[in-house]
Design a protein that fits this description.
The protein is mainly beta. About 15% of the residues lie in helices and about 35% in strands. A six-stranded antiparallel beta sheet has the order 4-3-6-1-2-5, with no helix packed on it. Strands 10-9-8-7-11-12 form a six-stranded parallel beta sheet, covered by helices on one side. It is globular, with a radius of gyration of 17 Å.
Length: about 220
């Protein structure tokens, strides 16, 4: 059930100079991993949708937020203090696992930047599902909490600085693979990546109903 509520800032942790992990103390929210909430500062007309970063069952919610210098809300969020109130509405969204799925079903999660957020929630909740993660970032410091994932199933793609990771974009890495028609694909991140990867998967005859998307603006 979607509800409106008030939460309070518990912690602000900067993972990079422009990426914030916002932790809010709240009443227990019944959400499905992969869903999002709408946040706004009381008295301010700006509101934004943010995927929930943590798993359900906790009296707190976490959000991985990219600070946009000329954005309407994020410059204000980064200046919040512990105890400040935040208005929330939700949960919303369908970027979630099927209600019923075969335990041997394969999932591939493909994301860019903070688009890893709903995937983090899903895999903290269901760590034993058969999966692979492909995470596209600009530099290694944007591999947010990559140690939380099974490293045998995690692949980062670095587009700018040199590292031991795959050098290039997510779409470059995908061209080294042959998509499996039985796999369910979850795409989360910027619209350019989602469009390119969707086209790539469809060109390999992946059924549309096996591609779930969540666009980050």
């Amino acid at each position: 059930m979607n509800i409106k509520s008030v939460a309070f800032v518990n912690e602000l942790e900067f993972l990079t100079h422009d990426t914030l992990l916002l932790t809010l103390s709240s009443q227990l929210i019944d959400f499905e991993p992969g869903q999002y909430m709408i946040l706004n500062i009381p008295g301010d007309y700006e509101s934004r949708e943010y995927s929930i970063y943590n798993r359900p069952g906790k009296s707190q919610l976490q959000f991985l937020i990219k600070i946009v210098a000329d954005g309407g809300l994020t410059p204000k969020l980064k200046n919040l203090k512990k105890g400040d109130p935040i208005e929330m509405e939700g949960p919303f969204g369908f970027f979630t696992l099927p209600k019923k799925y075969n335990p041997i079903q394969d999932f591939m999660f493909i994301s860019t930047g903070t688009g890893i957020s709903p995937i983090h929630s899903i895999l903290k909740s269901y760590p034993l599902i058969n999966h692979k993660i492909i995470h596209g970032v600009r530099s290694t410091n944007e591999k947010y909490h990559f140690q939380d994932y099974n490293q045998n199933h995690y692949q980062s793609c670095i587009s700018r600085n040199a590292s031991n990771d795959f050098q290039g974009r997510v779409t470059n890495y995908l061209k080294t693979l042959t998509p499996e028609k039985s796999t369910f694909y979850y795409l989360s991140g910027n619209s350019a990546m989602i469009n390119d990867v969707s086209d790539f998967l469809l060109s390999h005859d992946i059924p549309m109903n096996q591609i779930n998307t969540e666009i980050y603006f």
